Amino acid sequence: MTASTGWIRIDHAAIDRLSELGLVEIAVYVAMLRHVGADRCCFPSIARIASVAGVCERRARAAVKRLVASGLVDRTPQT
Fold first, then answer.
1. To 10 degrees, what angle do helices 23-33 and 57-70 make?
2. Tell me: the pLDDT tens digits for 4-53?
3. SS (H, E, C) 45-76
4. Beta carbons of 51 and 33 less than 8 angstroms apart
5. pTM higher than 0.70, yes or no?
6. Residue 21 DSSP label
């Protein structure tokens, strides 16, 4: 297995609010950032987010809801 290379960018707003978030939310946020495109949108499945974050799907769903409630993530339905 080879390690992937690249960088992700974390907004200052997220870094400033790390103390408000739990470890699961941080892991899920970073997992979502890995999938952000040039349009600043990402559409990974909950299963993929959970896998990358190392949590079960139920915890990933709950973390996404908390990230949306906190304002760090916007949820927009796919069309």
1. 90
2. 667 888 888 888 887 888 899 999 999 999 998 888 888 899 999 999 99
3. CHHHHHHHHCCCHHHHHHHHHHHHHHCCCCCC
4. no
5. yes
6. S
Grouping H, G, I as helix, E, B as strand and the rest as coil, residue 40 is coil
> Rounded to whole angstroms, how far apart are CA atoms 15 and 19?
9
Instruction: Say if CB 18 and CB 25 are below 8 A apart.
Output: no
Residues in the chain, overall count: 79
Read off the amino acid at residue 63: A
Place of tokens 């069309």: 79
69, exposed or middle or buried, with CB in 10 Å at 0-12, 13-18, 19+?
A: exposed
